[in-house]
């Protein structure tokens, strides 16, 4: 139950507005206002709900907890001392205690993340091993057993071409390189955590294996330090300090030392939130350098560079652009990410480098279940060529399969390499993922409905009894609205959005008076009229099923509320979603003058 819906007040309501709403409801639902035993019982039940809602929303501390953590937060024991007076101080202390309790509960639980990345080459362009009899064009001819003597009249026949058998015919992918990554994180204390990362990379006989351990310590809310050690093929020691000067300004300093023969490499990053939607950063990497004789004998490694980055976040869109200027390489990078639907996310990236040329890619991430998802991407690179990427993730574990289609970027390759994979992904999404998600959702809804059938039935019974209780006093409200030429509800329907969209007629009762409503749509005309106050009807951004006199007739489905009402002699119509606010009357709700006003208004 939503306590804001019970009192019919918005979340921004003041204590005075909450108190006034509570008093108005008490006039109707106080048990002493009713004479019959049945009505007294119904009023007593609704009065208890109203009192509970007022006890929570009418108390500043309880309201803050409820807004932040819901009804479950009210079940916990909070130790808030007298020093915390303002809502900001109370909320800050609540968040601190919640964080501490969560850290203590998860103290012995390891958080793990991992990825297996297997890169395949399916281009069919295989480097053939050199034959001992092979002679490159325009090169001196030296044959075995003949030495530097003239070429014989009948030289040995050329060798047969090396073939991969069936793999040559079908272009079966060849495993090009492998990357395995896994990390474990554990919170030692509320301020200290340790992270272990292991990774292994293999490419054409070259193997790189490393284990990284990182210890993080939070000194205070604005200062964090980290120390990392890498053991393996490329060992190093790293230290990092993260300083937050304000909520929108930070600086990070990192020192990395991979050998005692050269001074450490430093990276400095400074960032600031320019506006609510924009964040800017500048980073400087010292690269390889020497101090006197220290570092001169070491081979030059990474070169120094400066990077400017601008990030824009607004709604479901994230855009990031950066420009890097360095001694060895300069590049421009752009990325774009947007959530197209609740389960689908689009990602684009482009890179133009002075060293590696250009790179462009597009990817789609699709959420399958609450804890798993799949991804598909296309990538064009001037070095690696054209490739597709498949990805599957679940509970922090990811399997990535980049497959190189061709090393040459031609129109033919780009066209077929894009059309065929995208078509396959489309059909897989339409005929496999979407049906699976629908069936899985239906199965879960059926399980919940079966397990809570008694509760749902009780909600329905309570709503019907509340409507019967309202019916005794609703005529008085309608007469007042009639005298003032005010707002009168002709019909209110609430339920399945798809079914309501099929009802094209203005009102169901007038066009089909003898036909009952579908089971997944309920008549809420009386509860809506009961909420009309001084010719105004306001519903907040909460679930309509929690309103007094309402219940959920189609659990798990999209619902809408349709209201047909008269105001100042004109018919109005409005439809709103489950959590969409409703304000009436408005001029935008006027239907038109072609509809005749009903002679009698029947509720």
TrEMBL record:
Coiled-coil intervals, chain numbering: none
Places the protein is found: Membrane
Domain J, chain residue ranges per copy: 2-70
Cellular-component GO terms for this entry: membrane; mitochondrion
Highest taxon listed in the record's lineage: Eukaryota
Keywords, sorted A to Z: Chaperone, Membrane
Any one biological process term the GO annotation gives: cristae formation
Pfam annotation, one family: DnaJ
Protein name per Swiss-Prot or TrEMBL: DnaJ-domain-containing protein
Organism: Piromyces finnis
């Amino acid at each position: 139950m939503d306590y804001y819906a019970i009192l019919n007040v918005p979340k921004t309501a003041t204590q005075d507005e909450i108190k006034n709403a509570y008093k108005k409801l008490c006039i109707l639902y106080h048990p002493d206002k009713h004479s019959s035993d049945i009505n007294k019982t119904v009023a007593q039940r609704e009065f208890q709900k109203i009192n509970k809602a007022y006890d929570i929303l009418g108390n500043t501390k309880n309201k803050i907890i409820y807004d932040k953590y819901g009804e479950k937060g009210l079940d916990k024991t909070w130790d808030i001392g007298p020093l915390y007076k303002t809502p900001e101080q109370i909320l800050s202390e609540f968040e601190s205690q919640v964080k501490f309790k969560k850290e203590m509960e998860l103290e012995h639980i390891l958080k793990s993340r991992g990825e297996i990345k297997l890169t395949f080459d399916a281009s069919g362009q295989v480097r053939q091993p050199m034959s001992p009899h092979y002679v490159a064009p325009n090169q001196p001819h030296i044959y075995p057993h003949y030495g530097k003597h003239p070429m014989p009249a009948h030289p040995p026949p050329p060798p047969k071409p090396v073939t991969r058998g069936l793999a040559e015919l079908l272009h079966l992918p060849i495993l090009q390189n492998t990357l395995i990554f896994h990390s474990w994180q554990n919170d030692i204390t509320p301020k200290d955590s340790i992270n272990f990362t292991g990774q292994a990379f293999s490419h054409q006989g070259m193997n790189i294996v490393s284990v990284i351990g990182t210890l993080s310590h939070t000194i205070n809310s604005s200062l964090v330090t980290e120390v990392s050690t890498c053991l393996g093929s490329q060992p190093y020691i790293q230290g990092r300090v993260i300083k937050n000067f304000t909520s929108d300004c930070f600086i990070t300093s990192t020192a990395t030392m991979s050998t005692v023969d050269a001074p450490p490499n430093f990276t400095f990053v400074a960032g600031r939130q320019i506006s609510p939607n924009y964040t800017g950063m500048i980073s400087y990497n010292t690269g390889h350098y020497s101090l006197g004789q220290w570092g001169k004998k070491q081979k030059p490694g990474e070169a120094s560079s400066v990077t400017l980055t601008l990030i824009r976040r607004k709604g479901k869109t994230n855009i990031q652009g950066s420009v890097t200027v360095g001694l060895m390489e300069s590049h421009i990078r752009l990325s774009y990410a947007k959530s197209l639907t609740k389960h689908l996310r689009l990602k684009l990236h482009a890179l133009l480098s002075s060293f590696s040329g250009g790179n462009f890619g597009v990817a789609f991430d699709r959420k399958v279940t609450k804890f798993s998802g799949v991804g598909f991407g296309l990538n064009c690179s001037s070095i690696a060529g054209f490739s597709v990427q498949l990805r599957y993730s679940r509970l922090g574990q990811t399997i990535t399969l980049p497959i190189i289609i061709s090393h040459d970027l031609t129109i033919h390759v780009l066209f077929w390499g894009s059309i065929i994979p995208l078509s396959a992904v489309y059909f897989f999404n339409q005929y496999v993922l979407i049906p699976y998600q629908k069936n899985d959702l239906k199965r879960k809804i059926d399980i919940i409905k079966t397990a809570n059938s008694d509760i749902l039935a009780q909600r329905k019974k309570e709503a019907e009894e509340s409507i019967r209780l309202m019916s005794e006093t609703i005529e008085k409200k309608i007469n007042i609205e009639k005298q003032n030429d005010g707002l009168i509800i002709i019909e209110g329907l609430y339920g399945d959005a798809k079914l309501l969209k099929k009802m094209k007629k203005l009102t169901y009762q007038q066009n089909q008076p003898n036909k009952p409503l579908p089971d997944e749509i309920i008549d809420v005309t009386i509860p809506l009229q009961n909420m009309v106050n001084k010719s105004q009807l306001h519903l907040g951004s909460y679930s309509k099923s929690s309103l007094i006199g309402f219940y959920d007739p189609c659990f798990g489905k999209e619902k809408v509320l349709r209201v047909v009402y008269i105001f100042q002699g004109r018919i109005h119509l409005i439809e709103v979603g489950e959590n969409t606010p409703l304000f009436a009357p408005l001029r935008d709700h006027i239907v038109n003058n072609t509809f005749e006003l009903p002679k009698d208004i029947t509720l």
